[in-house]
Each structure stands twice: as structure tokens, then as C-alpha cells.
Amino acid sequence: MERAYHKWFSPTLGRYMEMLVFGSEGIPVIFFPTRSAHFYDFENWRVIDAMKDKIIAGSIQVYCVDSIDSESFYSDAPPPLRIARHIQYEKYILNEVVPFIRIQNKKRELVAAGCSLGGYHAVNIAFKHPALFTKVVGMSARYDLTQPLPFFADLFDGYFDENIYFNMPNHFVPGISDPCLLQQLRDMDITLVIGREDTFLDNNRHLSDSLHQLSVPHQFYIWDDEAHRPRYWREMVKIYL
Fold first, then answer.
1. Contacts of 90 (CB under 8 A, 6+ apart)
2. InterPro entries in the record, alphabetically (predicted)?
3. Which of 13, 158, 163, 189 is the most exposed place for a label (fewest CB within 10 A)?
4. Neighbour count for residue 153 (Cβ, 10 Å)
């Protein structure tokens, strides 16, 4: 399996960012890491190995990007700066990672995928830019980071503003009314996967219900147990990516 390491200084983020790319052709997948994890963790957890056959066959090409969650959602900065840093990260993906992929890969399709907080990143960016992404897979994810849950705090300490609203799928999705945007969402291949005992189950149900109300087709799968560990993600990626 072809493996390539890339690193460059991001003018958007003002720091170096790293990435691993697996495969040389196929539909490109931007794979977001879990909470405060890094670009190499999915390889270490053998999640990439679970997709090895698809990668070698040229069905998919996987771009494992790094995260800056410790500088945004999990930083000690005031809440407005936390969400501002996240928005910078999204701009890095859109303005640096996507053009890099377009140079490497000529496929029209583009997939966003991730597990846990990476699933949030994938769904949030894909739903905000449905003209860019053709498929999204969110696994074990939380789609409202402002909602306190057992063992998971409100990541903005009660603060709420427009930037937060437009970066929480469970907030902005129900309010989508633009016909063009809705059609783009309806054309996207959307998959949400969550464990029956996962704390984020109701979060996922809420998003699924919102999509139903907007007549946006999607797949919503509930696995047995919590299903919030690499051993489950190894099985999920075989099925959904």
C-alpha cells in the first residue's frame, strides 16, 4: 500500500501541519482524527489497515489530516477565540488541503469522514459546503458541542454566538431553507453511525430527524454496544467507506 508523508507551513493557521496519504488513486477521502488526536493515529490503530484492500484496489485514496483541537475547542482561550480558531482550521482544509488533493487526484468526488470529534469535523464541513463534498461519513460523533452530556462538557462554557450556531449541525441544519443548498444536501451520500449505548446517540437521532424533516436522504445506523473504539471503527470503515 502506497504511503506518503507531507508537511508544510500553513499560512492560514500560522504553523506547520502534517498529513499522511494512503494510496495513489481512487475517490479521495479526507479523514479527520478523533478528539485532540493526530494524523498518524488511524494508522497506529489499524483503521487504515482495515481499508487496505480498497486502497490497494484504487477505490479510495485516504488523506489523514492533523487536528488542532487543543488550540480550538479544548484550549483555555475565551469561547469566541475557540470558535474563531476552529474556523481558521476549516479554512485550512478548504483553502490548502482541498487544493492539494485536487493536484494529487483528478477525481471529481470528494469524501469527508471521521470518528468521534473527527466525525463532527467531517459532517460540519460537508454540510456547510455540499457543493464541494459528494459523500460524508460520521462515526461515533457529536453534532452539538454546546450541549452538556455525561462526561462531556459544553465546550463553550455557556457562551453562544453566530459563529457557534453556524458550526453546530444540530443548530444550523434545521434552519436551512435555501433551495439550492437543500438540493446539494439531497444529492450528497450521507451516513451517520453510532452505538446504541453511546452518549451521543440522541445527538445523532436529532440530526437524523432534522434531515428527515428537510427531506434529505441519508443512512442512519445504530450499532450494538457503545461502538466508540478503534476496533469498531475498523469494521465501520470497511462497510461505509
1. 124, 125, 128, 167
2. AB_hydrolase_fold, Esterase-like, Mycobacterial_A85_antigen
3. 158
4. 11
β-pair partners for 111 = 29, 135
Are residues 143 and 207 in contact, defined by beta-carbon separation less than 8 angstroms?
yes
The helix/strand/coil state of 59 is coil
Please report the pLDDT score of residue 160 as a whole number: 98
For the chain, list the domains and their CATH numbers: 3-240 (3.40.50.1820)
pLDDT at residue 150 is higher than 90: no
- How far out from the chain centre does Cα 144 lie? 13
The answer to whether residues 96 and 89 touch, using CB atoms and an 8 Å cutoff, is: no
Angle between helices 117-128 and 79-92 (to 10 degrees): 70
**Cell 454566538 belongs to residue:** 161
d(CA 178, CA 128): 12
User: Where does residue 33 rank: exposed (0-12), middle (13-18), buried (19+ CB within 10 A)?
Assistant: buried
Q: How far is CA 150 from the centre of its chain?
A: 22
Amino acid present at 181: L
Model pTM score: 0.97
> In which region does residue 60 sit, left (phi positive, over 0), alpha (psi from -120 to 50) or beta (all else)?
beta
